[in-house]
Design brief:
The chain has 169 residues and is mainly α. It contains eight helices and no strands. It has one domain (6-157).
Length: 169
C-alpha cells in the first residue's frame, strides 16, 4: 500500500512548481538536513559529467519527492547510502532481467513491476516526467545517471523500512 497518497503527491507538485528561487533554497537546506544522502546523490551528478541544466531537472524531481514525503504526514527515516545502493541494485537487476526476454514478455514483466510498485503514483509521475524530459532534451551519455538516480529516489522512498509506530494506550 502506498505511503504517499495521490492527493499528497498533487499537493507536492503544486507546492514545488509555485516556489520561487528563495523558497527552493530553503527547501534545499531542509532536504540536506533531513535526507542528506538523497541530496548527495543529486550533487554527485556534476562529478559524473552531468550538465547543470540537466541537474536542474533532477533537482526538481528530488524536491517533489521530498515534498511528497512531507505531505504524507509520516515520519520518514534517514535514507542511508546502503539503502540507496540496495535499491539501485534492485532496480538495475529488474531492468537487466528484461534484456533477455522477448518484447511481449518484457512488456508483461514491466507491467508486473509497475503494478507491484508500492508507490505507483510517485513512480508514474517521475517516469512520466522523465519521458517528457527525454523527448525535449538533446541525448547525452550522462542521461543514464539522471534516469537511474530519479528511479532510485522513488524506489528508496517506496522500500525504505519505516520505523514501527508505538501503540497508543
Amino acid at each position: 500500500m502506498s505511503r504517499i497518497s495521490r492527493h499528497a503527491l498533487c499537493r507536492a507538485i503544486e507546492t514545488i512548481r509555485a516556489m520561487n528561487r528563495t523558497d527552493k533554497e530553503h527547501l534545499a537546506d531542509e532536504l540536506f538536513r533531513d535526507q542528506p544522502n538523497m541530496f548527495g546523490a543529486f550533487l554527485v551528478q556534476q562529478q559524473m559529467g552531468v550538465s547543470l541544466e540537466k541537474m536542474e531537472f533532477l533537482l526538481d524531481i528530488l524536491f517533489i519527492c521530498f515534498q511528497a514525503m512531507k505531505e504524507s504526514g509520516l515520519s520518514w527515516p534517514l535514507i542511508t547510502e546502503d539503502e540507496q545502493d540496495r535499491q539501485l541494485g534492485r532496480y538495475v537487476a529488474a531492468v537487466q532481467f528484461g534484456d533477455d526476454l522477448s518484447e511481449q514478455l518484457r512488456d508483461r514483466a514491466m507491467k508486473q513491476y509497475i503494478e507491484g510498485h508500492p508507490e505507483q503514483a510517485l513512480f508514474a509521475f517521475v517516469f512520466g516526467e522523465m519521458a517528457d524530459w527525454l523527448r525535449r532534451s538533446i541525448p547525452e551519455e550522462t542521461d543514464k545517471y539522471i534516469i537511474l538516480t530519479a528511479a532510485n529516489f522513488v524506489n528508496c522512498i517506496a522500500f525504505v523500512p519505516m520505523p514501527a509506530s508505538k501503540p497508543t494506550t
